[in-house]
Design a protein that fits this description.
The complex is a heterodimer of chains A (232) and B (223).
Chain A: E1 7-16, E2 22-32, E3 36-40, H1 47-55, E4 62-67, E5 70-74, E6 79-80, E7 88-91, H2 103-108, H3 125-133, H4 149-161, E8 167-171, H5 179-196, E9 200-204, H6 207-213, E10 216-221, E11 224-230
Parallel strand pairs in A: 3-9, 3-10, 7-8, 8-9
Antiparallel strand pairs in A: 1-2, 1-4, 4-5, 5-6, 10-11
Chain B: H1 2-35, H2 42-54, H3 57-68, H4 73-82, H5 90-114, H6 118-126, H7 131-159, H8 163-169, H9 179-188, H10 192-216
Classes of the chains: A alpha/beta (232), B mainly alpha (223).
């Protein structure tokens, strides 16, 4: 018996312009049997919309989204699991670190779901583990604005991974970095993904990401899939 | 001068309660207006809720009197069912002061919530937060500065409330005679010394509140 695919996505969505006309139409379907999926295309191709639909941050008009066989969204059956319950780790393009919290609090953020943010003094072994692994222990008490670009990305990655998500969704993970740092962090992420054995779906406009990460490469243009290629 | 301190204490009590009411209602209204983008009547609702700021306070006081008076629809219901009377009570003064200062809190809360980076709220959702936790852990802390400034301005405005309060709550010394009403009474009665003291006291309190508001006002990007 074959395993269910990591991602099984079939969605359609129309965005309307202010005057009521159709400004953009997204319509795509793909199935990924590989642990790595890279969705590549120019800006305005619908990459972000797709990633947000998978994460539960955007609701498509119709279609279905499954991850490892679990139905996350199905317009016919009226299923739309809230983002909070989908169990993905999400790396935002600008990292979306909480500016009022320090690095440690940012990483611990998703571990408690109550009405209060984690305390500055709290020490959770899971958080400390990631702080050490990413060499963030020296800056653990600092606010995001005081960090370097690489430290910011690692903080955001640690925050996404500390809750042991079922898959990692990455939104242009390297676009906010200068080219020198980009190459190094690509290799870091690659090694991390291999070690954790966690499936990932990345969107990028950079063909280098596509070549580097391998897996299933999907080309998106103007809301349609225009090419797909599976690499070992 | 004891009467002056009693009037000041009453003013602070009324303004404090009015601000507390607006902390809840003004914040909720501001949040609703900031997030409810698909609601077509949003700007109309905003304008209606801003009316108390531009209507003459005596007009507001008259509306309140008509609604909350013993024969008014709300006042009659409160009186017969709960035994509550609001006219000529300090609670009535709180309602008048809260209504007049409500738009200040709502406006700054709306601006504060609209200034929150949508991606940060998305991050909170992806990290597993429900809507209430998201509000208290992400939206509210990030809108805090703007909201605090609005609350302080509202407090200052409530402290100076005169027209609507006089219409609804009257001028009963020790019960509804706030500082600004006491000044009016003192001047009317020709008690210059008393009036001078009350005016000085009132000015000092207002300057103190505005200084506090000024410290919170500068819109920094990162709170």
């Amino acid at each position: 018996m074959t395993q269910p695919p990591f991602f099984d996505v079939q969605i359609a969505q129309q965005l309307h312009s202010r005057r009521g006309g159709t400004a953009f139409r997204l319509e795509l379907a793909f199935e990924s049997q590989q642990a790595r999926t890279v969705l590549c295309g120019p800006s305005g191709a619908g990459k972000s919309l797709t990633l947000q639909a998978i994460a539960g941050l955007n609701r498509p008009d119709r279609g279905r989204i499954r991850c490892r066989g679990q139905v996350l969204f199905d317009s016919v059956r009226g299923i739309d699991l809230p983002a909070a319950q989908r169990g993905f780790g999400y790396l935002f393009q600008d990292y979306a670190l909480f500016p009022q919290l320090d690095v440690r609090q940012n990483i611990a953020f998703g571990l408690s779901k109550g009405w209060l943010n984690p305390s500055r003094r709290a020490r959770d072994p899971r958080v400390e583990h990631w702080l050490q692994l990413f060499e963030l222990d020296r800056v653990a008490g600092q606010r995001p604005e005081q960090l370097s670009g690489g430290q910011r990305q690692r903080t955001a990655l640690a925050r996404a991974l500390v809750g042991e998500p079922q898959a990692l969704l990455l939104d242009e993970p390297f676009s906010a970095l200068d080219p020198a740092l980009r190459g190094r962090l690509r290799e870091e992420l690659d090694a991390l993904l291999q070690r954790l054995q966690i499936p990932m779906l990345m969107i990028t406009h950079d063909p280098e990401d596509l070549a580097f990460f391998g897996g299933l490469a999907l080309q998106l243009h103007a809301g349609r899939l225009v090419g797909s290629e599976a690499q070992p | 001068m004891d009467a002056a301190w009693i009037a000041l204490a009453l003013s602070l009590k009324v303004a404090g309660w009015a601000t507390a009411v607006n902390l809840v209602l003004g914040t909720a209204a501001g949040y609703g207006l900031a997030r409810w983008r698909r609601f077509p009547g949003r700007e109309l609702l905003d304008a209606l809720l801003t009316l108390p700021m531009v209507l003459p306070p005596t007009v507001l006081g008259y509306y309140l009197l008509v609604l909350l008076g013993r024969r008014g629809p709300i006042g009659h219901w409160l009186d017969t069912n709960l035994g509550i009377q609001l006219v000529f009570t300090w609670q009535g003064a709180v309602i008048a002061a809260a209504l007049v200062s409500f738009p200040l809190v709502m406006k700054s809360a709306r601006a504060g919530f609209e200034g929150v980076d949508a991606q940060l709220e998305q991050a909170g959702r992806v990290l597993g937060l429900g809507p209430w936790a998201l509000f208290f852990r992400v939206s509210l802390p990030l809108a805090r500065r703007s909201l605090m400034a609005g609350l302080l301005l509202a407090f200052a405005r409530a402290l100076g409330e005169f027209g609507a309060t006089l219409m609804l709550a009257g001028s009963i010394p020790g019960q509804t005679q706030t500082l600004s009403i006491a000044i009016y009474e003192a001047v009317q009665a020709g008690q210059d010394e008393s009036a001078n003291f009350l005016v000085a006291l009132s000015s000092i309190v207002c300057v103190a509140v505005l200084l506090a508001a000024g410290r919170l006002m500068p819109a920094r990007n990162t709170p």
